[in-house]
Amino acid sequence: MILLMRSLGHSLVNFFASIGKIGIFTLRAVFHSCNPPFYPNLILKQMIEIGFYSLPVVALTAIFSGMVIALQSSSGFSLGGEKAIANVVVWGITRELGPVLAGLMVAGRIGASIAAEIGTMRVSEQIDALETLSTNPFKFLIGPRVIAGVIMLPLLVIVADIIGIMGGFIIATFDLGFNPDSYIRNTWTSFEFIGFISGIVKAAVFGFIITIMGAYHGYYAKGGSQGVGQATTNAVVSASILLLLFNFILTAIFFAQ
Amino acid sequence: MNTIRPEIKICLRNLSKSFGNKIVLDNINLTIQKGESIAIIGGSGTGKSVLLKSIIGLVKPDSGSLRIDGKETSMLTHKERMLFNTRFGVLFQGGALFDSLTIWENIAFGLMQEKKLNKKNAKEKAIQIMSEVELDASVSNSYPSELSGGMQKRVALARAIATEPEILIFDEPTTGLDPVTSNVINDLIIKSVNVLGATAISVSHDIASVKKIADNVALLHEGHFVWQGPADKIEKSQNDYVRNFVNGVSNNQSLPSGRS
Fold first, then answer.
1. B258 to chain A, closest Cα gap in Å
2. CATH fit for domain B8-247, picks 1.10.10.10, 1.10.340.30, 3.40.50.300, 3.40.50.2300
3. Which residue stretches of chain A have pLDDT < 50?
4. Does A4 touch chain B (CB under 8 A)?
5. How far, in Å, CA of B13 to CA of B63, rounded?
6. What pLDDT, on the 0 to 100 scale, is given for residue B39?
7. Which residues of chain A have a CB within 8 Å of the CB of B116?
8. Is A133 in CB contact (< 8 Å) with chain B?
9. Which residues have CB under 8 Å from B85's CB, separation 6+?
10. Are the CB atoms for A244 and A121 separated by under 8 Å?
11. What is the structure's pLDDT at B231?
């Protein structure tokens, strides 16, 4: 019993210690992202990496999600379905599926690559080398990635929203035989600003979570290639879980009655 | 009046560092004169790297004083430390070249970040330094992964000396290189230290290399210096541990400490 309590206490202490460590890391990352010197070239490079090269995966996820929502809801609303389906597609995509699925895809793609890159730099002493060359790794490595993540995720989500709604339109008109004009009109009337904005804000927060988690796990990676592999896994898992947690919190804040 | 009183560059007093229960450095004392080239030797896991990293500021000592140019460095903030680091040029064990940058960008990194040179001037300077370490200018646009181990070491050396630092640090400069390449690197190290008039600290296992590049040697064992003296005296030392280390004999008996 004592043994059980001891190990429980031990893991609890470790848990809070790592929360503190992540907190301090996050504050440092934010501080250095907001203070000069900035590296515009590196920010641009990361924006292309995070934004442009994520377009295909995000677009594919979005179009299939839009199509699935239209299909699923068509079986649920047999009467006067046309308006309801457009409504469900717009709400579902802009409020939830757009940001969450884009976020999860980017967490897998970018969270992993940030953790692997920074982790490799850590275990091969490249981060130490940066410091001896009077360059702050928080400004040079982490800042550009965080800035790019916070800017690019909302843009990706706008693209996901448009493509997702288009996926719903394709199913509604080609498969369910709705009138395209009235479907588009219904889509417009269903569109609500607050839902769209909530999705964009979520996306910015997700971009922050993903890049911070990737950088954190990479920065503290140790023990060669195995350590880097572990860091990559931890980055993706923790980013995904935090992303879903914050999705819930932000939804509760935006749509609290 | 020209009484030559050697200037103290680096001074360690009662420096200690432990990780968890493991004491890595135990009340270390070491004085390094300006322009001196000292080698720190010792078996694996005796704290050599931790000592180097403490001097560079990558590891914070638990207690004791570490003065560089008379300034206590263990209390510096991160930002002050960054500025302070312009005095150092470090050749890391594995090279630690930035693999996302080309060879010339690696060498010119310090010039652009610290000395704020523009790209064109930095590249010219980088190519000039490449010739000093006998690297062909044709590889300047290659990436580190495209070069052999020996060439990577040269690039790392070039990067370390590019900003003309006052203190050069070499972490196992010849590990993993063949004897011929090792010799070339040793010669380049001697040349760079002489040209810059820098103070040099090397960590090494390689006795042949140590005798060549260092004036003085300090032997670290279990967190203490067990022997310090001129490099050419190391083979004549009567200290058992030093003799065994130099001859590669395993050492299991308890160790006498102090100078021989």
1. 33
2. 3.40.50.300
3. none
4. no
5. 9
6. 93
7. none
8. yes
9. A131, A132, A133, A134, B56, B57
10. no
11. 85
- Within an 8 Å CB–CB cutoff, is residue B98 touching chain A? yes
- Please report how the helices A193-219 and A143-170 are oriented relative to each other, as an axis angle in degrees rounded to 10: 140
How does pLDDT run across B145-162, given as a tens digit for each residue? 999 988 999 999 999 999
The fraction of chain B above a pLDDT of 70, given in percent, is 94
pLDDT tens string A157-204 = 999 999 999 999 999 999 988 899 999 999 999 999 999 999 999 999
Chain A interface includes B241 (CB < 8 A): no
The whole-angstrom distance between B97's CA and the closest CA on chain A is 6
Q: Which residues on chain B are in Cβ contact (under 8 Å) with A126?
A: 96-99
Q: Rounded to a whole number, what is the largest CA-CA distance in chain A?
A: 71
Question: What are the extents of the domains in chain B?
Answer: 8-247
Interface pTM, i.e. ipTM? 0.87
pLDDT at B4 over 70: no
Q: What is the 3-state secondary structure (H, E, C) of A183-210?
A: HHHHHHHHCCHHHHHHHHHHHHHHHHHH
